[in-house]
Design goal:
Length: 270
């Protein structure tokens, strides 16, 4: 079991309210099976993490979502798969200002792990801390981005991020094909603090857009006078939900979804 909820908007105060509004989408009854969860977010331009690799409560809810005021958040709850139950194996993963989460497990990962990691430059490989397929995919993406434009640039465009995601998933599919496996059935969420881009292959991704004044008023029914007069834009995206909530839109499989702090989601073929 795995679910991811992410959001990005231009007002951290209201984004925090939106995160609280949809935190219930990550609420899970464990039925005796322990789950892990993590949250990645940005404050004052810094990527921060809160992670709990093992949570054995009967009903898990990520209460930390209720007290985060951030303009970009990635949260995941999951049944631990590849790797031991420790913090380093718990998504989201972080490298410098980058955050990454993966929904789905790559079948046959043990057969492609070594050749995949061999293609990483040493400065990336030495920063890996866990054993999961998700972290390996993250560093494969960073490697593709480094090969194309370098990771030390001040600004990297959404187009360059999308191209690196395409390169990383193609590299993975190629290695899986050589080992007799099918293409990777995964969803990826990656952010540099300005963009939030999702690569979708599982068939269960959907999003909700907030920008109308009446929608802001609904989020802030008891907000300070005039709060709704300040421009507000926010997009919430999720993977792993069984049914879309009201006013949410499904995303077709084999798509890339690009979100930023102001514009509506941009969707294109993978």
């Amino acid at each position: 079991m795995s679910r991811v909820l992410a959001l990005v908007g231009n007002r951290p105060d209201v984004c925090g309210v939106a995160a609280k509004k949809y935190a219930h989408l990550l609420q899970v009854e464990t039925h005796g099976k322990a789950l892990g969860w993590g949250i990645g977010f940005y404050q004052a331009g810094e990527a921060l993490l809160r992670r709990r690799p093992l949570d054995d409560r009967e009903v898990i809810e990520i209460a930390a979502l209720n007290d985060i005021s951030a303009g970009l958040i990635i949260a995941q709850i999951r049944t631990p798969g590849v790797g031991a139950l420790r913090t380093e194996n718990t998504p989201p993963f972080r490298y410098r200002d980058w955050l990454f989460a993966q929904r789905g497990t790559i079948g046959g990962f043990d057969q492609i792990r070594d050749p995949l990691l061999e293609r990483l430059p040493e400065f990336l490989r030495c920063n890996m801390r866990g054993e999961t397929d998700g972290e390996a995919m993250f560093y494969s993406f960073l490697s593709c981005l480094d090969e194309a434009v370098g990771l030390d640039r001040d600004r990297i465009s959404a187009l360059q991020i999308r191209d690196a995601l395409r390169g990383a998933v193609a590299r993975t599919d190629q290695l899986l094909g050589r080992s007799g496996q099918g293409d990777a059935a995964i969803d990826w969420f990656v952010s540099d603090g300005e963009h939030l881009i999702a690569l979708h292959r599982t068939g269960t991704m959907m999003y909700r857009r907030f920008e109308a004044p009446e929608e802001l008023e609904a989020l802030l029914p008891e907000g300070p006078p005039g709060a709704s007069l300040h421009p507000f834009r926010c997009s919430v995206i999720a993977s792993g939900l069984d049914d879309p909530p009201e006013k949410w839109t499904r995303v077709e499989s084999e798509r890339l979804v690009t979100l930023n702090r102001t514009d509506p989601p941009a969707i294109e073929a993978l």
